[in-house]
User: Fold this.
Amino acid sequence: MSDRQITVGRIVGVHGVRGWVKLLSHTDPIDNLLRYRPWRVALDGNETELKPLEGRLQGKALVARLEGVDDRDQAMRWIGADIRIDRSLLPPAKQGEVYWVDLEGLKVRTTEGVLLGTVSHLFATAANDVVVVQGERERLIPFIKDRFVKSVDLDGGEIVVDWDPEF
Assistant:
């Protein structure tokens, strides 16, 4: 799991004329994206390593200057590129917390032992996080510990939920 590549952001635009890029960060807080190095940047099926030289919050956005990207035209080339890092670069999760990426692929069973499928991905809503479970059909299960999510066993590869299989 530690050698796995995970997407932590995306280059979404350019900033100025000196090669700076605008970033969409999937980290919390968003400027944590700048702490991880190196970046493996994927665009059009090709992957290359880019190093952020500096970066900062610019209003509510995040901008960065990348090694070897010195003007606006070079920066525009990278728009739409996903930013990936080695999973091993993330700090250990705090007690009682997990990274979403570590839940992907886990089996999901009900408290009665019915296999619902595997975790495809998660997403956030205003109310709570939601687990997308792919099985014989797709299920959206609120990731609310103790209410719906009874246990998460990363080593055993399983999440136990209190969920009606018919729902």
Notes: Residues 18 and 103 are 40 Å apart (CA to CA). Helices lie at 72-76, 100-103.
